[in-house]
# Entry
Amino acid sequence: MQLSNRIAELRASDYTSSFRMMVASPIVLHRIELLLLQHTIEEISKEFPFFASREFLDRARNQDVSSIEACGNASLWACVNAAIALSMHAKIINSCFQQLSLSIWAYFKNAYATFPELILYGNDLKIVQALVFMALFVQSSADARTTSLLLSTALRLLQTLNLTLIRIGDGGERSAVESDYERRTLWTAFILDAELSLCCGLSPVLSAGDIRIDLPYEGSHVGHNEASSARNESHEIYGRIFRWRAELALICLVVRTRLYLRDVFSMPDNELLSTIVALD
# Structure
């Protein structure tokens, strides 16, 4: 009877109502903010081509991201706020850091406030992209704990949202563009997680053997077929570098698994030398 009464109380209360997100500050993108955002987005998309940068910037210029209602979903709202915070943090000069740090963190709090909503109600690739954007910002602040939380959540969501490692890139009902962004988002999160594991001694979320999809394409990024030949060549270079970083992340994880786990320290010298030769 007590349990029944408690359930009735909860149903009548706000606990079971729809999630209401607290927003720290509104977004009003003036010319200088748009320039900072454009430069940062272009730089990020060259290094980690996991999102449609042109579509992202067009929505920002048209003020379609001024509020979560204008964005239409929490994922885009989180992406935009994290990207603005990242652009301000990356471009700011040391003498102005103290003056603008509150504004920078207000934008990031806007993004991070969506975390419960993304996990509870999100069901598409944009959730993972939002988490990766937030991880890129936190990574720049040397916060390994929050970076690890965001990256591990992103990689797990890629599996639990039915964007599984086996399913990515198998064709299915998705277009080639969607499949390519899924693949690039996975590799971006994997690269960042591998680098974090190497620097901080953390266990990676995925091992090298868990990756069952092809490495990123070396060709130009998706969505740039209409670009000039010079621009296409530039994208091919960045695409090649992105693939090399993915290969390097796989190598680092194999080395870590076979040389730096606790069991390895009790390995006989001859086995350890054999392992080093094999890795080499």
Observations:
- The chain has one domain: 22-279.
- The chain has a mean pLDDT of 80.
